[in-house]
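Allow me, if you will, to draw on your knowledge of protein folds for a short while. I have a record of one protein: its chain in single-letter code and its fold written as discrete structure tokens. I should value your view on which stretches of the chain appear to form regular backbone elements. Thank you for your consideration; the sequence and its tokens are set out here:
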Amino acid sequence: TAEVRLSELVFVQGDEVSLSSLKAAHVVRKDKVRARIVLSGAIDRAVTVKGVAVTKGARAAIEAAGGKVEE
């Protein structure tokens, strides 16, 4: 499982964060099959997270920025 910092989401183009968009942004290695977003840093834009695990703290920060997490 790849660990992704909240601050690294700025490298993802668009408003949707998924495993494939994290790989396209070179945040997660191509051979990883799972990722988890952890609370480290800040996010200042609304994003929709799909199919990626999120810690409680990261979920709260994403929702506070106007984003949402879909399982």
User: Anything to note?
Assistant: The CA atoms of residues 1 and 44 lie 25 Å apart. The beta strands are 2-5, 16-17, 35-38, 48-50, 53-54, 68-70. The first strand starts at residue 2 and ends at 5. The mean pLDDT is 96.
